[in-house]
Design brief:
Pfam families: Inhibitor_I78. Keywords: Signal. InterPro entries: Prot_inh_I78. The chain has one domain: Trypsin Inhibitor V, subunit A (Trypsin Inhibitor V, Chain A, 2-Layer Sandwich), CATH 3.30.10.10. Helix content is about 25%, strand content about 15%. A 3-stranded mixed sheet has the order 1-2-3, covered by helices on one side.
């Protein structure tokens, strides 16, 4: 009985951890932040619209922003001053990175 209760508690804890919906991304190191992504990391979790896109575009130094939606083909070339904004299917920002 004791083993079953412990196992059930562990399973519930893992299930609840998987339900966490906070969109959080660690900041990029200063050496890697060639595009100014750290300036807009606080936008992760927000729904992207035209106004938010323009706000991000104006906040990054080179104003070079690429929006990446799910299942959208993208080139694999690395452009150091380009800010990539990745979205989920509901147009919520899930990741911001350089490249």
């Amino acid at each position: 009985m004791r083993f079953w209760v412990s196992s059930a508690f562990i399973c519930v804890a893992f299930a609840m951890a998987g339900c966490s919906s906070t969109a959080e991304q660690k900041s990029i190191s200063a050496a890697e932040d060639t595009c100014g992504a750290n300036k807009v990391m606080d936008r992760i979790g927000e729904k992207l619209d035209v106004d938010l896109f323009r706000e991000i575009e104006m906040a990054v130094p080179h104003h070079h922003v690429r929006v990446i939606k799910p299942d959208t083909p993208v080139t694999m070339d690395y452009v150091p001053d380009r800010t990539n904004v990745k979205l989920d299917k509901q147009d919520v920002i899930t990741e911001i990175s350089c490249g």
